[in-house]
């Protein structure tokens, strides 16, 4: 949300509602409000819906080559192409927590109803791997997690329970070795070539292959788009196996959706940095 949009924001909480910065209404029942809003939308004249169109999916037209080094952008472009080609992928339970990937995955289309599970609250950091245990136990469809490495480090032990229960969950860990969202809010210029990351946003380097062996799950490693397509092939060929998949993301690769979010909220823009206009490294060739 842009700072300048605050006066246009309607916030409804348990017991009160606010319109912009001024008007406040007490005694609001949140559940009743949601029910009434749902009824209103269902009965809203259909001709007005024609005035609103969904934005074009940016992943559908982005060129992706097998030799390209993996980035946030082409990871989700590839995932979108898999969604378009394969019903099994559309039927995965796709689970995301508070990470750069959540905001990128929100642009995907074609996922089956009730198959996109996410939580964007800051307190949910790392919940996605744990959440996948619940979805896998409740549903025989494969659960696929796309986690940030910072969040995964908080809940990695879930892999032990996944393996013990012979579940087929696949966990992608987007390994850029930094709390990228926090860093983008602290100083977005860190993602430019001359920028430096805050020490509290740097992450420890883990040996994910050894971790997979310790938890008795299959291990795969993604460096390029071709590697990622190979992962999807492995998931199709081995529908019953659990996987830990490390996806190497360049530390300076600022996900476009996070750049948009951070610039809108903080007012600080990459193009205004000393060496601006050079954030995403993901379009570089391998």
What does this structure look like?
- With 286 residues, the chain is of the alpha/beta class.
- Helix content is 37%, strand content 16%.
- It has 12 helices and 9 strands.
- The chain has helices at 30-43, 46-49, 72-85, 87-90, 100-105, 127-138, 149-155, 158-164, 180-186, 208-215, 225-237, 256-266; strands at residues 10-13, 15-19, 23-28, 93-96, 116-118, 143-148, 170-175, 218-222, 243-248.
- The strands form 2 sheets. A 6-stranded parallel beta sheet has the order 5-4-6-7-9-8, with helices on both faces. It has a 3-stranded antiparallel beta sheet with strand order 1-2-3.
- Strand 1 and strand 2 (15-19) form a beta hairpin.
- Helix 9 packs parallel to helix 12.
Please work out how many helical segments DSSP would assign. Answer: 12
Q: Name the helicity range.
A: 25-40%
Q: Given the helix and strand composition, which structural class is it?
A: alpha/beta
Widest β-sheet, arrangement of strands: 5-4-6-7-9-8
The amount of beta strand, in percent, is 15-25%
Q: Main beta sheet, described?
A: 6 strands, parallel
Give the helices and strands as they follow along the chain. EEEHHHHEHEHEHHEHHEHEH
* Rg over C-alpha atoms, rounded to the nearest angstrom: 20 Å
Task: Give the overall pLDDT as a whole number.
Answer: 88
Using DSSP, what is the number of strands? 9
Task: Name the overall outline.
Answer: globular
Uncertain runs: 278-286
- Separation of termini? 36 Å
């Amino acid at each position: 949300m842009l700072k300048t949009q605050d006066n246009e924001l309607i916030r409804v909480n348990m017991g009160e509602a606010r319109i912009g910065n001024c008007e406040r209404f007490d005694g609001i029942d949140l559940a009743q409000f949601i029910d009434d809003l749902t009824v209103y939308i269902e009965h809203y004249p259909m001709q007005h819906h024609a005035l609103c169109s969904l934005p074009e999916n940016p992943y559908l037209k982005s060129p992706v080559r097998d030799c390209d080094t993996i980035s946030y952008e082409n990871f989700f472009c590839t995932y979108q192409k898999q969604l378009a080609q394969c019903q099994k992928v559309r039927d995965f339970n796709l689970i995301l927590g508070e990470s750069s990937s959540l905001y990128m995955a929100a642009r995907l289309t074609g996922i089956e109803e009730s198959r996109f599970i996410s939580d964007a609250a800051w307190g949910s950091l790392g919940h996605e791997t744990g959440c996948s245990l619940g979805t896998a136990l409740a549903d025989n469809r494969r659960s696929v997690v796309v986690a940030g490495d910072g969040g995964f480090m908080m809940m990695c032990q879930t892999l032990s329970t996944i393996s013990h229960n012979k579940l087929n969950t696949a966990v992608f860990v987007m390994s850029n070795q930094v709390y990228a969202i926090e860093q983008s809010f602290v100083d977005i210029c860190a993602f430019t070539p001359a920028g430096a990351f805050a020490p509290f946003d740097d992450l420890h380097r883990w040996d994910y292959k050894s971790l997979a062996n310790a938890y008795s799950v299959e291990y795969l490693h993604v460096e390029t788009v071709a590697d990622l397509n190979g992962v999807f092939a492995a998931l199709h060929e081995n529908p019953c196996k659990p996987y830990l998949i490390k996806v190497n993301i360049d530390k300076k690769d600022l996900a476009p959706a996070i750049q948009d979010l951070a610039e809108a909220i903080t007012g600080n823009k990459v193009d205004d940095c000393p060496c601006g206009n050079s954030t995403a490294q993901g379009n570089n060739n391998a």
